[in-house]
Amino acid sequence: MKRIIHTSKAPAAVGPYSQAVECNGMLFVSGQIPLDPATGKIVEGGIKEQTVQVLENVRVILEEAGYSFSDVVKSTCLLSDMANFQAMNEVYATYYPNEAPARAAFAVKTLPLNVLVEIETIAAK
């Protein structure tokens, strides 16, 4: 059975997609960008500040669905420039200090609103 997840603590979907969808014990979190849900604006700063906001958006969606970072099995990190990989990875590692999930990370031509990072997440119970 499919369950749509929505929380006002994360940025609202700006298109025909859900913040997350749960199905058969798996949670699929749509790619999150560094939008501050309180202001609707991109957080100020560089890749580290943007990565923190992205992962905080992921956190509140996971929590709304009854999951946590320890349930995450796969992440996909999209970067505007691979030169930002090391700094993004330093922040990312603080959210997964033990048993990190499988992950892919790659650069793309352009991300929404010209942000530096977007991360999608899959969790399982």
Please tell me about this protein's structure:
- The protein is an alpha+beta fold and 125 residues long.
- Helices cover 23% and strands 33% of the residues.
- It has one domain: 2-Layer Sandwich (60s Ribosomal Protein L30, Chain: A).
- It has 2 helices and 8 strands, in the order βββββαβαββ.
- The strands form 2 sheets. It has a 6-stranded mixed β-sheet, covered by helices on one side.
- Helix 1 (47-64) runs parallel beside helix 2 (85-95).
- The longest helix is centred in the middle third of the chain and has 18 residues, at 47-64.
- The two termini are 15 Å apart.
Keywords:
125 residues; alpha+beta; two-stranded antiparallel ribbon; 8 strands; 33% strand; 60s Ribosomal Protein L30, Chain: A
Task: Give, in order, the helices and strands.
Answer: EEEEEHEHEE
Shape: globular
CATH architecture: 2-Layer Sandwich
Structural class: alpha+beta
Poorly predicted parts = none
Cross-sheet strand order for the largest sheet:
1-2-3-8-6-7
Largest sheet data:
6 strands, mixed
How many structurally independent domains?
Answer: 1
User: What is the CATH domain class?
Assistant: Alpha Beta
**Mean pLDDT across residues:** 97
Number of strands: 8
Number of helices: 2
CATH H level, superfamily name? RutC-like
Cα gyration radius (Å): 14 Å
* CATH fold name: 60s Ribosomal Protein L30, Chain: A
State the separation between the terminal residues, measured CA to CA: 15 Å
